Amino acid sequence: MRRRGSAGEKALGDTEAKLDEIRSGRLSLRLLASSVDAPEGQGTGFQVEGPFAVGKAKGSLPVADLRYTRVTGSQRRTTRFLSTGSAAFVEVDGRTTRLTDQQVAGLRVDEEGPTVEVVTGKEDRLLRRADVSVTLAVVDPRVRDALGDLAGARLRMALDVAEINRPVQVADPKSG
Known about the structure:
This protein has one domain (24-160). 11% of the residues lie in helices and 42% in strands. The termini are far apart. The protein has a six-stranded antiparallel sheet, covered by helices on one side. The protein has a three-stranded antiparallel sheet with strand order 7-8-9, with no helix packed on it. Strand 4 (75-84) and strand 5 form a beta hairpin. The protein is mostly beta strands. The protein has helices at 6-17, 141-147; strands at 24-33, 43-53, 63-73, 75-84, 88-92, 95-99, 115-120, 127-135, 154-160.
């Protein structure tokens, strides 16, 4: 008899084991918080979009054309990060600045990659936590100022599930 969920568990494990095989792609990440009445696409948050390829050798730069957009209601402010693999640039308010080798040192390929943690129950194998983190760090304070919120960014998706399958009761709020 096949255990319920075993195919899903295998698929999740196989996927986690291959995360470090992702070398390039088109990133599209959006996180917006808004009221249910707000128009679609409005709220407060950010989005990061564009093509990327991780550096191939230790010490190399990524190849990327990423746009980081800060979203506040209907207002948008975009900062662009470009890297050819040998040189990197930041574009803020239409002004492009080439970054020095010292300024991009934190973006060069090192031994670290994305980190992924998946926690399941020992007996029931129900998901307890999934945590994916990718860090893009810029050390130079001048570049950090130019990049604003993009400097030292950590892209993180975290999901925690606690008290699984326990009864849930919610009391009516008291008016007054």
